[in-house]
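Notes, p. 3: input format for complexes.
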Amino acid sequence: MKTVRIFDTTLRDGEQSPGAAMTAASRLRIAGMLADSGVDVIEAGFPAASPIVRESVSQIAKKVRGATIAALARCIQQDVDAAARALQSAQRPRIHVFLATSPVHLRHKLRMSEERALSVVSEMVAYARHRCDDVEFSAEDATRSDRAFLSRVYSAAIAAGASTINVPDTVGYATPFELGDLVSYLRGSVRGIENAAISVHTHDDLGMATANALAAVEAGASQVECTVNGIGERAGNAALEEVAVALRTRRDRYGADTRFDIGAIGKLSRAVSRATRMPVQKNKAIVGQNAFAHESGIHQDGVLKERTTYEIVDPKSVGAASALPLGRNSGRHAVFERARRIGLVFDDDGRRRFYEAFIDFAQRKRTVRDADLLALAQASRNGPTHARAYAEDCAPSASPSATRARAAAR
Ligand code: KIV
Ligand code: ZN
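Output follows (410 residues plus zinc ion):
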């Protein structure tokens, strides 16, 4: 079984989500949680970006133990110096330098020729290596770069001392097949690749960040860069929880796993959501409120008989719980199971009347709570008009017959 390293960039790329800036205290707390959960590398920030980030990276480097702490730097000496200074007290520091390599970035953003870019990479990776034993190099916009040139850039970075070369799909443009193919190509063409780890850093602009990262792992990447809840620049990055749980669940397919404790996912997700004030979408894989919720009668019946009929991941293993929310799609099995759990007992006739009342109620309300079930049981014992009145009180309709039913029940 191959071990894939998790490089978490929640505190750097994740914090680049618009409006997601975290306080220094939250950043430190989240870094501690990431280290405790077995993340291999924590990218703590981009020290050249601001004094606040610089200070926070230093604090994380000083206090957080057990994981490598990385800091980002452009291929500029002052950036590398700022990263090195911020990482001074880290147990295992890493400087992560990057330079764009695609034609569009070289021409319009950097106004630099390919040959110049090559020498800047050699020079700045060597400089970073002189300041830190562990250097990662990223070719920004790698997936829109010329392959042969990219291969020369990574060869130069390794020759200058980089021990990890990162392949960013900066704008989320690649498809899984293409990224896997690019990783295979680089494995076969970069000089010195046998002495370096291949990393991937994927973005979700086309909704393929996690699929792309996994395709890269299949092709030989041994580090994945990701963020908690998938936050990050624009549409975000590959989600840590998706990558880790996919590798664990499909070890048969990937022959790979991570050292990350997936049991920490629930707490991490909530902490990051709170610190960034970014709610998690309800149907988000693994950490969304609905990720393990089953509402349809057929699914609820299946899960009650055997959880694995509709759950490929045990929710408990990721710090979550199954839910069988009751609504208009629910079936008898789940309704009576819930009723039993809250202590309701019926004879045959009561059972029929209760279920009829439930159906009527569930047509009007999106979700049915335990309190509703208790009230419906009581009302249905008193007769159908009472049950109808309860439903009407909760979700009144303007129909004259319903109004009559409410009046009659009072
Ligand atoms: O998306 C990107 O290219 C990045 C790099 C700095 C790794 O975030
Ligand atoms: Zn990025």
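The beta strands are 2-3, 5-8, 41-45, 68-74, 93-100, 135-140, 164-169, 197-202, 223-226, 256-257.
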